[in-house]
Input
Amino acid sequence: MMRIGHGYDVHRLQAGSGVVVGGVRIPCAYDAVAHSDGDVAIHALCDALLGAAGLGDIGGHFPDSDAQWRGADSRRFLRRVRELLAEGGWQVGNVDVTVVAQVPRLAPHIGAMRAALAADLAVGTAQVNIKATTTEKLGPIGRAEGIAAHAVALIAEAGP
Output
């Protein structure tokens, strides 16, 4: 059996020294406003994986009302989600993430993001795809007020 899930996340941006996207810190003039590190790619991906497995959403597992997650590295979330999938008899087939951001420029970091996500999901980099796009300076993301991501994940029953 295979199942598919979709996830979405968005964070406001403020003046700062860098954002974390796909597990990679990218120096720039902005910070994501968030309870954890604000990694929109990982947050969307966690939601996609949890949704595919019927396990709720990231807020249910790592609520922003819980002080233990303040400033947390979102890669911890992703590794725990992978563990939850394995406990339920699921394995990751492939994931596809689209990050929507006017700033910072993400293309030079995509390889590192793919490697980080693949490591945390215990899959090959060929099973992880990341794309970046802008909104052509339209709307709040285009005005560098925010950053967003969509993710789709395919999971399959784990073999014996």
Remarks:
- The chain has five helices and seven strands.
- The helical segments are 40-53, 58-61, 74-87, 110-121, 139-142.
- The first strand starts at residue 2 and ends at 15.
